Amino acid sequence: IAAAVELWARGPAALPPPPQPRTPVLPVEGERNVLITSALPYVNNVPHLGNIIGCVLSADTFARYSRLRCWNTLFVCGTDEYGTATETRALQEGLSPRQLCDRYHALHADIYTWFRISFDHFGRTTTPQQTRIAQDIFQRLLARGFLLQDTLEQLRCETCGRYLADRFVEGTCPFCGYAEARGDQCDKCGKLINAVELKNPQCKLCRGTPVVMPTQHLFLDLPKLEGRLEAWLERTWATGDWTANARHITRTWLRDGLKPRCITRDLTWGTPVPLDGFRDKVFYVWFDAPIGYLSITANYTDQWERWWKNPEQ
């Protein structure tokens, strides 16, 4: 505190000269390199103050602090654009998913510019780089035996002629009885739901009653990773800055045992699955969207791996 008071009394002239901005910002040997990513806002609506305060503003504050400390800082973000919520909203507005994403991406970018959020790059997940990197990660998982193939019972609307992904189905929650639960989770009790478990399911497009039919999907074999994950967590819990809440939630998942997680969907709007027998499917948005942080960086600089595959710096 005494040092801060002394520096304050000496005024701005005592501060070191600000570093000259680099373009692009890349890790520098011998410097403190800081990569900041705020949560990708979903693109099917206008962002509100809660979105900005909840993730974007806090990341921006830290980015400004990092730059004032003369740390070599890269701050990226972008719109999350794939998934059933986009398809649903596009249908409501009479647009194609691409048209809807173009519209809301521009709107998001304008709002963050108005708030003077200091992104070095604000991108999006519907890019060729996203497809390339997501498919490469998928191929690596496949080659290393971390994927499973299995049959799922899934709801299909014969009127619409399509399998219904999670958010194209609504019905009564089997756990709490909430009448407007989605096909992936109940917004009232918070439990995850398999769409076929819904009572009185309805197609969100035509309000018809879907039927249960089998369909093939790919799963991430999380049980195979459980041992390595636990060992990694023990190391990072001992040395890192995990919050008590984050530790508790993670321990709960591991206590119950990890389960295989489906990573494909019967949709057209998404990153295509590059595997015979599944080329009419796309990746589930929660497999695809986190890869957006990498692809957005890759759209900022072709040397993106220096940020994402460079733990020594």
TrEMBL record:
It is an enzyme of class 6 (ligase). One of its GO terms (biological process) is methionyl-tRNA aminoacylation. Its main location: cytoplasm. It comes from the Eukaryota. The keyword Aminoacyl-tRNA synthetase applies. Residues 34-311 form the Methionyl/Leucyl tRNA synthetase domain. One of its GO terms (molecular function) is ATP binding. Keywords: Aminoacyl-tRNA synthetase, ATP-binding, Cytoplasm, Ligase, Nucleotide-binding, Protein biosynthesis. Its EC number is 6.1.1.10. InterPro entries: aa-tRNA-synth_I_CS, Met-tRNA_ligase_1, Methionyl/Leucyl_tRNA_Synth, MetRS_core, MetRS_Zn, Rossmann-like_a/b/a_fold. Belongs to the class-I aminoacyl-tRNA synthetase family. This is Methionine--tRNA ligase, cytoplasmic. The lineage of its organism: Eukaryota, Metazoa, Chordata, Craniata, Vertebrata. The gene is Mars.
